[in-house]
Amino acid sequence: MSGAKRRLVAVSNRVGPLTDEGKAGGLAVGLSDALRRRGGVWFGWSGEVSAEGTDSEARTETVGNVSMVTIDLTQEEVDGFYYGYANRSLWPLLHYRLDLAQFDRASDRVYRAVNQRFAARLMPMLRDDDIIWVHDYHFFHLGSELRQQGFKGSVGFYLHIPFCPPEMFSALPSGVDIVKAMLAYDLVGFQTDTDRRNFIQFCVRELGGEKLKGHRVRVGGRVVSARTFPIGIDAEGFARFAVSPEASEHEEMVRGMAGDRLQIVGVDRMDYSKGLVERLLGFERLLEDYPENRGAVQFLQVAPLSRSELDAYAELRRDLESLSGHVNGRFATLDWTPFQIMTTGFTRRALAGIYRAARVCLVTPLRDGMNLVAKEFVAAQDPQDPGVLVLSRFAGARAELSEALIVNPYSTDDVARALQRALSMPLEERQERWRAMRAAVFGNTASYWCEAFLAELESIPKDVPA
Ligand code: GDG
User: Fold this and answer.
1) How many helices (H) and strands (E) would you count in the chain?
2) CA–CA separation, 204 vs 225, rounded Å?
3) Range name among 67-76, 98-107, 304-313, 395-404 with the lowest pLDDT average
4) Which of 130, 291, 412, 415 counts the highest number of beta carbons within 10 A?
5) Is 225 in the same domain as 248?
6) Which domain holds residue 255?
7) CATH code where residue 187 lies
8) What are phi and psi of 385, to 5 degrees?
9) Residue 368 annotated as catalytic
10) For residue 1, is it within any domain?
């Protein structure tokens, strides 16, 4: 292989930021690093709605050797592609919530059409030896569309969310089409071995595929590589944030608010996959079963609103508000409010300070691809006085963070017991557990994740002109 790195073309629903480290999450950090190193294009939806939609003129913002290119969607495309198929069908289903998944063929059609349009708009930007990396459940069909439109080079796909078991995935009316479309990629990457196995099992059981050596699967004439690449964070960068003036100011504010009470913190988009209701019930059970905590702990949940146009999300908000009123009404005293929820977001530096003020971080999703909050919490801790991570067994992060207190988020008793243990954990044990988790978080960063995926994709031979 020649020394020069091939140009990278990344596709994701939303793009950027490329440079603003204060705003960038794990995906943006990893990708912008790789894009800067290789040069390339980052292509996605502008977030804008216009009458032209996917036919709109592309907006390009260029920073050094990287261009961020975006196009609009029409209102109909937003409704069918984004809210409809991606977030009413795929998101709940892939998070094992068949009860919440809605299927309708109109939004399936719009989803495919948007994938086809994105491929068509991308094609003229591509060079034969580009390496294309498509992200997440919004674009399952994009690779196959690129192939149909004649692209022969390397195309990889990464799924940021779980892949549910085949018995469940088969409920999706267009499930077979989705998996067949995934076979057009050279490499499909997953957060955990469980997700990867679920995908392979679907190929074997439902499509008559054959499992080959080296994490490959053959279906008909197609061979695809399916590998696990757990996503990481910019650990050094986040640890630096945690000692920035803005972080310290927020750390002090939270500590001031808590007084000499121990602080429990949760940070999640307001999404039913994050187990927020179950978590609050666990906190209520703590106060019920371990009364010594009454007046001695408080719980701050940061939960910025997300997808609030969808019924399931509006309902979750109502449930949380009423449960939080119930818990506070039941236990509050004149000088103590046990639970506080905030739906406005913070900057990343401020968040780092909030994590640092916490004695316990509750990360208890019912199902989560990875969960970067768990890793950010670890990176933000003070080595002299680290907090304790209580982590769901159903978060992808569990595979790397086994030194957290692992809980079943559906079990109110289990969450309450783990909270009690975390709140009374001696300093030495906290430090020991934190050191092990720190090693994991700093050992598998966003950049490492990105380069591991790209190296694997590049190692798969393609017959394209150099
Ligand atoms: C998907 C998968 C996978 C939260 N509140 C604020 C804020 N956040 C940031 C966190 C964290 C990010 O949002 C959330 O990331 P998660 O990984 O926890 O969850 P999803 O958004 O569901 O992400 C997930 C991820 O993709 C990456 O592959 O791990 O499993 O579901 O970075 O810090 N950021 C700011 N203010 C807030 O108030 N600035």
Assistant:
1) 17, 16
2) 14
3) 304-313
4) 415
5) no
6) 235-442
7) 3.40.50.2000
8) -145, 60
9) yes
10) no
